Amino acid sequence: MSEYLVEVEHLKQYFQVRSGFKNMTLKAVDDVSFCIKPGETLGLVGESGCGKTTVGRSLLHLYDPTGGTVRFEGEEVTKKNIQRMRAKMQMVFQDPYSSLDPRMTAEDIIGEPLDVHHVCASRKERRDKVISLMELVGLNSEHATRYAHEFSGGQRQRIGIARALAVDPKFIVCDEPVSALDVSIQAQVINMFEDLQNQLGVAYLFIAHDLLVVQHISNRIAVMYLGHVVELADANELMSDPKHPYTQSLLSAVPIPDPRTARKKNRIVLEGDVPSPLNMPSGCPFRTRCRYATEQCAMERPELTDRGGGHMVACWNK
Q1: Residue range 87-97: average pLDDT?
Q2: Which residues does 96 contact at the CB level (< 8 Å), separation at least 6?
Q3: Distance between CA atoms of 27 and 16, rounded to whole angstroms?
Q4: Among residues 13, 7, 169, 1, which one has the least CA distance to residue 72?
Q5: Fewer CB near the terminus (10 Å): N or C of the chain?
């Protein structure tokens, strides 16, 4: 048996899009590989449009991958077994306002996975399970008969988390689960994710923009740029010693609450335009904005290589 719960190898997700009079291929995810251990949290960060959400959805076959393999507990995830796999692999969606059916009560939303996977033998067992799930995420039994519009944003996200936990999964894709919430509520939800992990031993792929949030909750962090993973390392090591020029730029933009320290900080501003995923540059995808770019960067794309201690970097010059 592998030591990893989830193994992703050379994952590709391409979409055919219409541009003017031509059909073109949009390479949303191109050759992404990583592994996640049981009970571990892997943070996935990068700017909007880099392919983070597409990676999460492709793992669960919400999009059928164009290429590559995804293994869960050593078994390859395919169209034939994904229905069975989804009892162990779940997702918490980004927007708590659009991911809940407005015509269903909280009890029915949380109970739907129980019905799909035939978990409960009776209505009483189903209701008891739903109530225990609601209490687990900080809701009470009085909320069971309410509809989605009667809840706040934080409460709706808690319903989404309870729905994901209903079938006792071992792995959850968290797709920016706090980005639509107020800052005060974000802290509550993040702490709840950590408590649930400690109680249940569930593993997370935690997708987010906020690097400080990702550092707080993650064991390791992967940085994406234009469909590629450019750096992957232990969370604290990546934050303290980033190797890739793009990661260095991202971290230099993290706000610091102390104005004196912030004024001394060296902000790395990226120049040049962001390439279109419909017309990717040759070689390294970051070379058009990189201050270290050389001729080799234009000719050949660098592979992720270990720079020591599992710190993986895709760069010719770092």
Answers
A1: 90
A2: 153, 156, 157, 159, 160, 180, 181
A3: 9
A4: 7
A5: N
Burial of 220 from C-beta contacts in 10 A (0-12 / 13-18 / 19+): buried
pLDDT at residue 1 in the model: 60
* First vs last C-alpha separation in the chain: 35
The strand order across the sheet containing 312-313 reads 89-92, 171-175, 203-207, 41-45, 220-225, 228-234, 312-313, 305-306
Q: How many CB atoms lie within 10 A of CB 79?
A: 8
Report yes or no on whether pTM surpasses 0.85.
yes
